[in-house]
Amino acid sequence: MKKYILPSLKITVAFLILCSVLYPLFIALVARLAPGQGRGETLSVNGKVVGYANIGQKFDQDKYFWSRPSAVAFNAAGSAGSNKGPSNPDYLKDVQAHIDTFLVHNPGVRKEEIPAELVTYSGSGLDPDLSPAGARVQVKRIAVVRGIPEATLYDLVNTQTEKPLLGLFGPAKVNVLKLNLALDRIK
Questions:
Q1: Angle separating helix axes 176-185 and 150-160, nearest 10 degrees
Q2: What DSSP string describes 48-78?
Q3: What pLDDT is recorded for position 108?
Q4: Strand partners of residue 51
Q5: Is the pLDDT of residue 18 over 90?
Q6: How many domains does the chain have?
Q7: How many CA atoms lie within 13 A of 18 on its CB side?
Q8: Which of 9, 14, 38, 122 would be 31's cystine partner, CB 3.0–4.6 Å?
């Protein structure tokens, strides 16, 4: 038994150093190479920080592209989904309320045309992105409110669409905050 104690202690110390010191230092170094140097990618307008690119924000004015609904009211300190199953009556009531609100603010859009992401909660409650379809379905409302041609807004959505990584990994997506900042720059 004594012959196993020393090797097991050595392995324990080695893994303790590897997992508690070297790995966190490596991750911190990699984060320094990312946008925002590991502190998150902030977006600014006229030198004032207006938000983080990787944390969803609430947009519910008709002149902006709307974000996904959030079960935590976009509170980054309390990231969470709704934890309600698809047959839960409260969940179904929430989804129907989101559908009704969307249809009131987007006349001419049929219920079947609304992408699910615009009426359901994301897993974290902080999803900053929409699918291109989720942005395009809102173009008519924004065109009317802002007096901007629909073609201009469709072009804006296309230019703000981030393609999948290497064309393979993940879906195409549109960051709602970046899209709305670009929308505000249109004269």
A1: 140
A2: EEEEETTS-----STTS------TTTT-GGG
A3: 87
A4: 43
A5: yes
A6: 2
A7: 6
A8: 38
Dump pLDDT digits (tens) for 140-182. Answer: 999 999 999 999 999 999 999 999 888 788 899 999 999 999 9
Per the structure, the complete domain to which residue 1 belongs is given by: 1-33
Q: For the chain, where are the alpha helices, taking DSSP H only?
A: 2-17, 23-32, 89-105, 132-136, 139-146, 150-160, 176-185
Same domain, 55 and 85: yes
Q: Which residue has the tokens 């004269």?
A: 187
Place of tokens 């990231």: 79
- pTM for this structure? 0.79
Q: Are 13 and 5 in contact (CB under 8 A)?
A: no
20 and 111 part of one domain: no
- Determine contact, residues 125/72, Cβ cutoff 8 Å: yes
Instruction: Kindly state whether residues 63 and 128 are assigned to the same domain.
Output: yes
Side-chain-side CA neighbours of residue 67 (13 Å): 25
Q: Which residue has the tokens 């900042």?
A: 181
Look at the chain and count its residues: 187
75: confidence class by pLDDT, cuts 50, 70, 90: confident
Kindly state the tokens that stand for 109: 């859009």
Claim to verify: residue 23 and residue 111 sit in the same structural domain? no
Query: In whole angstroms, what is the distance from residue 45 CA to residue 115 CA?
Result: 30
Q: Using alpha carbons only, what angle is made at residue 148 by residues 132 and 48, rounded to the nearest 5 degrees?
A: 75
pLDDT-derived band at 118 (thresholds 50, 70, 90) equals: very high
The amino acid sitting at 185 is R
